[in-house]
Prior knowledge:
Distance between the termini of chain B: 61 Å
Helix content of chain A: 55-70%
Shape of chain B: globular
Largest sheet of chain B: none
Low-confidence stretches of chain B: 99-113
Shape of chain A: rod-shaped
Structural class of chain B: mainly alpha
Structural class of chain A: mainly alpha
Low-confidence stretches of chain A: 1-7, 81-94, 131-255
Number of helices of chain A: 13
Radius of gyration of chain B: 19 Å
Largest interface: A-B, 33 and 53 residues
Number of strands of chain B: 0
Oligomer: heterodimer
Distance between the termini of chain A: 66 Å
Order of helices and strands of chain B: HHHHHHHH
Amino acid sequence: MMMGKGVNGKGAQARMDELLSAYLDGELSSQERRQLEARLAGDPQLRERLEELRHTVSLVRELPPVPAPHNFLLSPEMVGQTRRSAPPSRRTSSFLGNWLAPGLALASGLSGLLFLVVLIGGLLGLQNPWIAEPTPAPPDEVAMVERPEEPAEEPAAPQPMPESAGEEQFEDHAVTGTQTMRGIEEPSLAAGDAVSETEESAPAVPDGEVGGDEAPLAPTPAALPTVAEEPHLVVTSTVPLTQPLVITRPAPVESRPLGGFGPLVAAFATLAFILALAARVVWLAGRP
Amino acid sequence: MKMKGNVADMEEEDLIRAAQRGNLDAFNELVLAYQDRVYNLAYRIMGDPAAASDAAQDTFIKAYRKLGTFRGGSFRAWLLRIVANRCYDELRRYKRRPITSFEDFGDMDEEANPVLTSEEESPEERVERQQLAHYLQDAIQTLSPDQRVVLVLSDVEGMNYAQIADAVEIPLGTVKSRLSRARAHLRDHLRERGELLPRAYRLES
């Protein structure tokens, strides 16, 4: 009967308020509801307490709805940009943005500079330590001395050169040149022909056109038998044998700068590019 | 599927599906449909038009981003959960947010807290209703963030206990006790300052 002002004071009142509040919302179990209604029936003070609470709740429920003061439509920019990044990502972004990206950019710039230095140096011919020797030494002796030493290797490197040279200036030998190429493409089929060609042309060289001037030519036939298994390789070297020595020389001289410094140029250019790309990626990733 | 049609003609489910595929126009239709409700809830919790606007805008941005996690059910409840949590976080972040005192309510123009007018209402009655609305909002501001969010979800939004428990992620019993304490606090507030209330709304003591 004395629910509102029980011995337990505030605690009991709070518990009773909780029951009344849930009762108003219809959130009591049927048993709780029946018990409370029985109490209410015999306790006017409790009924008054309930009415006060009911009135309070109804005042809040009757608060007029406040309409939106403006539209909250989303623009593509808002969806794409409004990124509330968490503190950790900000920390990494400051690290990436302040140190890593500029560092990579600097490294990229240095590589680019080295690339330019090497490239310009190569174009001016400053770096010719290797090539300088062959260039002023066009005499056939030097060329011929080198030639027999590496008969199998030579055709591989300047392969295109003998062919074009032979076609342009030595119509006679152009035929053997093209046959050689065919031999390379289809070794199994043309092997026999190629061998026969070499057998014919090789002996002919020392006797005919070249003559005594081309003394170093002698070793070539000597080398022939050793490479007989791969005739096409030998043929390419024999094609220019008669006169092309002077012509084959300039070609390597021009191609050597690329051979010697090409890798360096390419390496620095690639390095500069990769570093620039990395700097960009890091910068983008680190942007808040 | 009538997806090719004008977004304005789409049903809510279709709009949600289209928005989930990145159709911003479809999502903006949902924004127009729910912005009053979202803003009102934010305003009743925050008690400040600017803070409520921020909360409402953030809610729609977050809702668009998280739309992929919406798995059917009540879209309204889903939105209200987002705005309630956004407001709750904000209140906890700025616990000592200055409270607008009742004496200042004259500064709050009608734009911030408009009251529907009716033909039969006298100017005096209208002023009284406005005063009451401001007074109640002021009283709600005196509640702790915990109690405030639960009270507004229940008595402004009309959610039941289970919906509130789900929205705020607290046990059902906690909803019950927080709501009860919030209402008791408001009642005591009204009782103490009852003389400030228009006569019609005063609680009999």
